[in-house]
Amino acid sequence: MQRILVIRGGAVGDFIVTLPALGALRRAFPHATIELLGNSSRAILAQHPRYVDRVIDLERWDLYRLFSQQPTLSQGLATFLSSFALILSYLPMPDVTFATNLRRYCQGEVLTWQPQPPSGMHITDHLLQPVRSFVHRPCDAYPYVYPDPAAQEFAACFWQTASLPDQGVVAFHPGSGGAYKLWPVAGWEHIMTWTAQQGLQGLIISGPAEQAHNALLAHPAHFPPWPWAQNLPLPHLAALLARCQAVVGHDSGITHLAAAVGTTTLALFGPTDPMVWGPYSRRACVLWPEPPGPLTLDSLPPDRVTQVLASLLYGTFTFTPSQARCTILRLPRTARSKLQS
User: pTM to 2 decimals?
Assistant: First the structure.
């Protein structure tokens, strides 16, 4: 049987925006065995019949040796690479050394693709480019994450233990792996308080990356007494997000995950461009200050965020996906907020 290997590094969001490319490979080669070499805790999101058959942890093999001019590979790695009819690598390459060495050991076709998109092109479309030649029909560029039965069972138990209602739960992810993407904690306190005043139940998402960047998120003084989902395996977190009515987050992998499970998503963007990095979903809305820059209570007033969140929750929001495949609302800078940043 034909074997295909995809090599992909990166964070949570990087794997999610790669799912359409994996799906296109699966449709092009429905009978092939497709294996994904990456960080296993993140790549596990692709372990689904629509994507890949097997996930292999990137640390298992010394791929870094292929970046050397005269690499010395173990017999196991050489045999592993030679067993594939097609290898597609999304690893960053400073020069042609890695690609040249990969072709030396692989008996089949080798495609290498820089993971960073060019200006103005959405990351998902960029990652689809090298596989389009294999597909004889239009590619579905929307990422989908499918929680497995075990993850759904975990989410059901979590819901019951936390006494969460079947409907109307709003999840908030006030952190991000990049400190420069964060909205002030005072803004999060404002929109969470508003949500509680509407009689809605909330769920707060937290992970180790954002706590390292923002210690205030570890012990917020004024967040409502809602349950926290902390440091969960991604399949379990995906199943929780799929149960929510809406999710609010920064430009982060968790925001991409919420959009990929089909939940209404409100993303707060600041210095990064959502036309390139926005969640690829018809039910995602991005609030983006004009001009772009760090998120402050001036550039992104809490009252404006709650206004958009209310329209999303109560069904009055009109989604108008642009070429970025999500709805983008530009917010001109206003007078200073009464809240302190």
Answer: 0.93
